[in-house]
Specification:
Layout: E1 4-7, E2 15-19, E3 34-35, E4 43-45, E5 47-50, E6 68-72, H1 75-84, E7 103-109, E8 119-127, E9 131-141, E10 155-161, E11 166-176, E12 185-190, E13 195-197, E14 200-210, E15 225-233, E16 236-243, E17 252-255, E18 258-266, E19 281-286
Parallel strand pairs: 9-11
Antiparallel strand pairs: 1-5, 2-3, 2-11, 4-8, 5-10, 6-7, 7-10, 8-9, 12-19, 13-14, 14-15, 15-16, 17-18, 18-19
Length: about 290
């Protein structure tokens, strides 16, 4: 599974939406959702998330703006769906290769959103005797969050072993708080300048990649920035690369008993990007 990262985890959920496995299926904002209790039994399948590249973070209006839960079992449907993720006709690239005699694809997308701070995750797929149960979580920012006005269309796409069973989507919604009073400590580490927190000196040493969605563009996902940080405590130094998007890599690390979580990188990107590496400041929450 090239271009994928393995990821298995169980999640609690509260809502269910059923789809047939024989073709593409989607539901709009007005879809009826029925409360269910997710099954405790069954076998968790290994799923792999498709990595999203810069070619998917493009300007333009997404071709499908509704909430979507999709099951793909053939190459033609996969080609059509992958093309729908790239509204820019100049965005090149065929869909990643999938052997549909052995594997299948499941996708989940939120409706178009007016700002950053939204994301969606397919957290697990459980095989039961009569169906597959897909755990989906939609994350939305709280009202107190200050977010850039960037139109986004968050989605998640996974590959997994093929099963010819009906698929049930078990959903839950999570509101992410941005209330500063809920944070124990917030650290702003400017490039090359160490800052102390919880007995640890934190220094931003490099920004190897910044593919976040520009604030003056319309994107179908929020993008990601890779941030290289040095943590020093008691004469020992540790270099760690954290990401702004959990889809791209780890977002936190623990040093000296304190958890450092990357929650932002300033300045926000614009197109064309003229930001120098020395202009960046990493924002971390420490607990």
């Amino acid at each position: 599974m090239q271009g994928l990262t393995s990821y298995t985890r169980r999640a609690a959920a509260a809502l269910s939406l059923s789809l047939s496995l024989v073709a593409l299926a989607a539901c709009g904002d007005d879809a009826t959702l029925t409360e269910v209790t997710p099954s405790a039994d069954g076998q968790a399948l290994t799923i792999a998330h498709f990595e999203i590249t810069e070619t998917q973070a493009v300007s333009g209006q997404p071709s499908d703006t509704a909430r979507q839960r999709t099951v793909i079992t053939d190459a033609a449907a996969w080609t059509r769906f992958w093309a729908s993720l790239k509204p820019d006709p100049n965005a090149n690239g065929a869909p990643p290769a999938v052997d549909f005699s052995r594997d299948m694809v499941i996708a989940a997308a939120m409706p178009v959103r007016p700002s950053g701070g939204f994301r969606i995750a397919i957290e697990s797929v459980t095989e039961l005797s009569d169906r597959l149960e897909v755990q989906v979580v939609e994350y939305s920012p709280a009202r107190d969050c200050a977010l850039p006005p960037v139109v986004t269309r968050p989605f998640d796409v996974v590959q997994l072993p093929r099963r010819d069973k009906r698929v049930t989507f078990v959903e839950r919604a999570v509101v992410t708080s941005c209330d500063p009073s809920a944070r124990l400590d917030t650290v702003r580490a400017a490039f090359g300048k160490g800052v102390d927190s919880h007995g640890v000196k934190v220094t931003l040493t490099a920004v190897p990649n910044d593919s976040r969605c520009p604030v003056n563009a319309v994107c179908i996902w929020e993008g990601d920035a890779a941030v290289a940080l040095r943590f020093e405590k008691s004469g020992q130094a540790t270099d760690v690369t954290l990401h702004t998007s959990p889809k791209a890599g780890v977002v936190s690390t623990t040093v000296g008993g304190a958890e450092f979580r990357l929650v932002g990188l300033t300045p926000a990107p614009v197109s064309p990007n003229t930001t120098k590496e020395s202009d960046y400041t990493a924002i971390l929450v420490v607990r």
